[in-house]
Design a protein that fits this description.
Order of helices and strands: HH
Distance between the termini: 100 Å
Shape: rod-shaped
Largest sheet: none
Structural class: mainly alpha
Length: 60
């Protein structure tokens, strides 16, 4: 075995391998966007429900 290949083998054994698991960045962005839209929709629904129940309409 030559010295460059031995060094390459040694470096390959010493460097940690990357375990690339998980979602891509665009997928994560879509999930965050859907979550934000869901939270905003829930807040709007709660405020709308509160305003409709608290609003007193006086028919004249």
């Amino acid at each position: 075995m030559s010295i460059p290949s031995a060094v390459t083998l040694l470096l390959g054994l010493l460097t940690p391998t990357r375990a690339e698991r998980g979602l891509s960045q665009s997928t994560e962005n879509v999930i965050l966007l859907v979550g934000a839209v869901a939270v905003a929709g829930a807040v709007i629904a709660l405020v709308l429900n509160y305003v409709q129940t608290a609003l007193v309409l006086n028919p004249w």
